[in-house]
Input
Amino acid sequence: MVAAGLLGCQDEVVVRNADAARPAPEGGLGDVDRTPDPACRGEGRWILAATGAVVSDDGHPVQNARVQLCVRTHPDERLICLPPPATDAEGRYEILVPPEARCMRRAVMRVLVSGAPYATTYCPVALDDVVDAVLVTRRPWVLFSLRPVDPLPPSDDPEAMQDVVLDGGLRLTLAPSMLGLGGDWSQWASRRIDLSAANAVRPCFADRVPGALVAWGLRPEASVDAPGARVRIEGGFGLGAGSPVELMLLGGLDTRLADGTVVEEAELATVWTGRVAADGRSINPSGSETGLTYLSWLVLRRAPPP
Output
């Protein structure tokens, strides 16, 4: 899937053909004209190519990862998503940006490995690291490996609401038909990442979430039909009874909350607010519960002061 919204999928999206995302010529940009468009000024950054690398959370290069660059152009605010090239044996990639996408206002990178047990990751791209018109991402994008769901819930009735017990105290309740999986739970995998540890390897979006405690990477990445999955969290994560928390969702492909609100790619939105139970052993939503309508990454954080 290469058609992805960067700033809300209700916008028009231009998806380039495969040639547009061909690797930059070996040894650099060769004879590519580096002259910036005179209209690319102010908030626009003139970028001809993008380079970087993808590693697993244990530091090893990831070959055949797909790296998709989506840009919001300046000054016309078009959304252009490039087909994702594959990384090489060293986890590296190079993308030559087509002329109509070179004046960038904002950008997001989607990183995934098709059919492999990694969580698809959406990362905001800093447009400051530009060297001679090449966007150089010096820190590699990190893909987190996931653990298969075990035991799998029964799948005899695709319409029956069933519990899916995920890694690290996360529990979702939904029917297989709500994901279009036809009762096949075998694709499911998850992993809890502790964000409070000083030496933790953190997902690229985590530093933008003040008070973040833990994150869960989920697979498959998919929309969930209304009313959405019920979410329950076991554990108090060191917080006192009654402590307020927020459960947040990372925006992915055409992500919408239960009320229809669009969540932009690589942005986070609150699914529900809750509190630590009196016995400190679970977290439950406060008031009216909102179902989870998309699976990508979830982040639990301390609720900010009112």
User: Anything to note?
Assistant: Residues 20 and 98 are 6 Å apart (CA to CA). The longest strand covers residues 212-223.
